[in-house]
Amino acid sequence: MKSNLQYWLVEHPSILHFSWTEGQTPASTPLFLILALLSYLSLTLLLTRLPLSPLNPALLKPISALHNLTLLLLSLIMAVACTLSILSSPSSTLCFSPHTNPTGPLFFWAYVFYLSKILELLDTLFIILSGSLRRLSFLHVYHHATVLVMCYLWLHTRQSLFPVALVTNASVHVLMYAYYMLCAVGIRPRWKRAVTDCQIVQFVFSFAVSGRMLYLHFSGSGCSGIWGWCFNAVFNASLLALFLDFHGKSYAGPKDKRS
């Protein structure tokens, strides 16, 4: 089984010889990124201002469940595939050489991860169509919009450390989309807090690993994509602050303390 996974997720010719080339790889241009972000933000603003009636739950919930199942399976595949790619990589994934080319399995899965973030934008549409606008927080929209920029920069700058971030983020999303999928089919799991806790741990872990990357960067010939990492670090810091605030407001009540 491991050899089959190794072939289909790492050594398949389409993956092994993948190359990110701006202007040639689909969705690789800055213009595409800008248009995608503007479309997402403008449509979100427009749809929240229109007097839309909530979509019939009998229709919306199966579609939402399928969407969440798709992202759950995709996240699981990306987490496993990138882990195998890291183990197969001859160079350090914490610090790419400044002359690294965006080719091979690691960059293939970074590209798939980038495209998956476009698919995740549908989360916002399902919230709007359900009529639950109170769930459409600043954190939700900010996270979905900015993570797309972050993933683009992983590829654009050939950013060191992204494989570790991809594995941890995809792993957390397996748990998160499993929760959302169960909710969509009428099952309310009792581990919602665990999803938020894992997201917070993910951000803390990213800063801990970044310390090692920075040491390698300043003690050697440098690591590729350091400016992309700077954006990533600021973004993660802002998300950590927002998630801590969300965690405090959502789980600090007396009822939670008794559970």
TrEMBL record:
Recorded topology in the membrane: Multi-pass membrane protein
EC number in record: 2.3.1.199
Localization per Swiss-Prot or TrEMBL: Membrane
Biological process according to GO: fatty acid elongation, monounsaturated fatty acid; fatty acid elongation, polyunsaturated fatty acid; fatty acid elongation, saturated fatty acid; sphingolipid biosynthetic process; very long-chain fatty acid biosynthetic process
UniProt keyword Transmembrane helix, yes or no: yes
GO cellular component, one term: endoplasmic reticulum membrane
Domain of life: Eukaryota
Keyword field: Acyltransferase, Fatty acid biosynthesis, Fatty acid metabolism, Lipid biosynthesis, Lipid metabolism, Membrane, Transferase, Transmembrane, Transmembrane helix
Catalytic activity: a very-long-chain acyl-CoA + malonyl-CoA + H(+) = a very-long-chain 3-oxoacyl-CoA + CO2 + CoA
Main location: membrane
TM annotation in the entry: 27-48, 69-88, 108-129, 136-155, 161-182, 194-214, 226-248
Family: Belongs to the ELO family.
Name recorded for this polypeptide: very-long-chain 3-oxoacyl-CoA synthase
